[in-house]
Every structure is written in C-alpha cells, then in structure tokens.
Amino acid sequence: MPAHDVSSLVAEAALDRPDMLAVVESGGRSVTWRVLEDEVARIATGLGAAGVVAGQRVTIAMGNRIEFATAYLGVLRAQVVAVPVNPRATAGELARMVADSGSRLVLADGETIATVRDAVRLVRAARAGETEELDADLVERAHEPRVHVVGVEPEGDEQAYDALRAVAPRPVPPLPDPEKLACLLYTSGTSGRPRAAMLTHRALVANIEQAAALDPPMIHGDDVVLGVLPLFHVYGLNAVLGGVLRHRAKLVLAERFDPQATLDLIDDEAVSVVPVVPPVLAYWVTEDHLRERLLPVRLMLSGSAPLSPELVERFTGASGIAVHQGYGLTEASPIVTSTLCSPELQSGSVGAALPGVEIKLLDDLGQPPEGDDPGEIWIRGENLFSGYWPDGDDGPDAEGWWGTGDVGFLDDSGDLFLVDRLKELVIVSGFNVYPAEVEEVIREVDGVVEAAVIGVEDEASGEAVVAYVVPADGVDRIADAVREHCAVRLARFKQPSRIEVVEELPLTVTGKVQKGRLRGLERRRSLGLLE
Asked: What is the third-level CATH fold of 426-526?
C-alpha cells in the first residue's frame, strides 16, 4: 500500500532494516535507518514544541548533509510545509523567498549562515518599513523568521539546530489528507520573479510510486545511490532521496560535484546508481581509465537538461555504461518520462511516460498536431503540482492536464523527443534560469537603457547566460557595472557568462525584442562568422 507521505517511508524502513546504513556523507558521517527515523521523529516533535504548526512554512537553506534529510522529513511528518532553497542564493534572492513563503523558521548551516543572516535582516527591515527593497505583496506575506543553525555557533537570537530535536519524540497524528501542501519549490518566474510550485504529499508520493512501478525497478534495495545532485532541487529531493527511501537503498551524499573526488567516492563507496546532469558526463567523458573508475556502476541516469546524442555516444564508448535519460519538471515532482520505460534505447529520445503519467501534444490552436508534427507537451497524472504559490494559479486544468511549455513529438513506440521550448528557459548545469529575472536585475544598473538575455550552448554547463545590453549615451564601463551588480543580486549560475554592449536591440513592430535574431548572431559567432 503506497505511503501517505514521504516521511512514513523512513518509519517503514526502520522497522524492516533498522541497523542498515541509510545515509552516508562523503566526509564519513552516517546514520542507520533506526537513527534516521529517530531523528525525523525528534524534529517533527520539536517543531511543534517550537510553536510551528501544520501548514506553516520552514525554509531549509542547507547543503547536502544528513541534517537536510532529517529536517526535510521531520517538517513533512509534522505536516508543516518545507521550503528547500538554493544554498548558493544571494541574500536578496533568499529574502524574497523567505518573505514570499511566509516562513516562520529558517534552517541554515555553516556554508549558508552568513547569507541567511543578511536575508533575515532584510526581511525584518522590510516588515518594519525601513527599506523598499522587497515588493509590497511579499512584505504582506512575510512573518518574523527565526533562525536555527547547524555546524556553527548561533549568534544573537539564533538557536542551534539541536534545539529543534525533542528529548523524547512523540507520535504525530497521521496525515489527514494527502492533498495538504507538503513542499514549495521555487522556480524562476517568467514574470521576472521566482514562483513556488505547490507540491502536495499526494504529488510527491505519486511520483515516487510511479518510478517504483518500473520493471525492473530503477533502484534496488541493495543499491548504493550517489547523492551529488543538490537536495534543494526537485531531482535530488524526490527522484533521488524519495527513491532511496522507497527502496530502502543507501544514499551517499556529496556536498558538491568535483570530477575527480566524485569518481573516487563512487569507487570508495561502491556506488551502483549514478543520477547526474549532462555537464557531469561532459566532465567525465575525457577522463583516462573511465571504464575502470566506474566499475561499480550498473545504472547511469541523466535528467534536468537536454543531453546531446553525441555526448551519450562518446560517454558510453568510453565507459561501457548505457546512459538512461529522463524528462521532468519541478511541477511534475519531477519525472515524466524515462528511457527505462522505452522498448529500446533510441538516440535523441527522453523515453516513454512513467506508469500513471499521460502525455498529449497540442498545436497553437489547442488541437492534436497533424501527422508527425511536433506540438506543446501536455501532461496529466497524480504527480502534478497544485499551481503556483500562494493562490494556486496556472495549475492543471479542470481535467487534470497541464501545458509544460516544451515542444516535442511522440514516435509510434510512445517515446518522447524534445524539439524546442516555448518558454525562454535557459538551463545551466541543470538549473533553471529565466531571462526575465536576469533582465530585470540588469535594468537596475544606472546607465542601462535596455537588456535582453538568451541562452547559448556551453560544453561545460549545457547552456550559458549571455546578456545584450544597451547603455545610455556617454556611459562607460557598463559591462563591468552589470557584472558587479549581477554578482550581488543573482546566484552564480544565473549570472551572465558574457555581456555584449550594443547600440540597440532588434525589435518587432510592436517593440518586442527579437531574441531569435540574437540567437542567430550567437550561432554565427559560434561558427566563426563574427568577431
């Protein structure tokens, strides 16, 4: 019988294999299933003792560490709402998410605490009317956030993470309704502001069960699964952590990806399942003795961004390991398709739909495309989100279908092939960057008249951000000013890798920037036809 919430998977595993290792950090710390369950229960009880009640939000700003897992799962068990955020977010970005979500607590570690402190000061100043840096609607939703920190000494009114660990955990009432909100995951909004996808307990568990229904299963109980994907990202959070919990495998956490150190970790821990993003394969494909270094690996999974058939062919040739791809979105919790569902591996395919997930294609008129023509990908399934925070806007329609904004076609076998994106999304190392958000930040710079941001191919990160900037007359060093401002306001992966200063942008008759022409310039530049 499927679990009602993700945290109950821990309790089941603790009964089944209490003394087996559940989570191991690359630095050597580890917890068994029995200890993991005890920690989750203590956090769930401690949240209640701290005055956090069901439905309230808790921001988790931590890297890949055991406390992230115990905090996330404890929050879910307490029927509080988890808000995992990028630990590399800037103070301004973090303040906006803390305020928007109305988080009562912020959990930080040694790597994030300095940024968290700055963000909390900004939220408090905005609530007191001392700054207008946060939009009014965010301030209205904001609450006074308290901070708990692990790994460093608390300062001021902060408390240690251990203060949330109840001395004696008490049973928490069972989840009354799987439709209750479990998680808010922020994605960059097309309006220029991040939006949080509202994922219910039903959606999270549904996708875990849909992946578990594969035959043979994606993860076995005796597998060792690499946890190098960031846990704040839906891929690492539900596809990897959720899958490990469901199958009672062992998760090996790495704080960050390092080409050599991660290969060493795979060898040292006998890692058998390796979920990664395409840039990882690009780093490894030129590695000497790759086949020997990946000897323990039985399954290589790639998601979060398109993977070129050429890279797949080179990697498989060098390693002897087939690469299975998938297509997913935060709003789908996240897996939609996998080549593990395909009758056979096909070049360029992202696989067939998981059991319980439906796909249809629609043209611009909302009709099925003719013949083999591509169309916008629409999906339906229990794994879909409930719209965007706080009002549930732009969620699935009355029949449960949701348009992804991606364009593709289906072959006769049911395999999906991605063609393009309707949205102007740029995917850098598996992370979503919406040009509107970056453009808005660039326009804040004195002397910038207009800006347009596009994505270009990048061998290391899949895509990179390029900004075209129009300066006011007589303004010098505008590129430096833009670069310095973006370094303060944007996470590193969102910052432009290159800034092109131009006299004007190509516009349509209605004044819209013709980004297709900018992409054409970039293609010509890549072919050496432009200086």
From this structure: GMP Synthetase; Chain A, domain 3 (3.30.300)
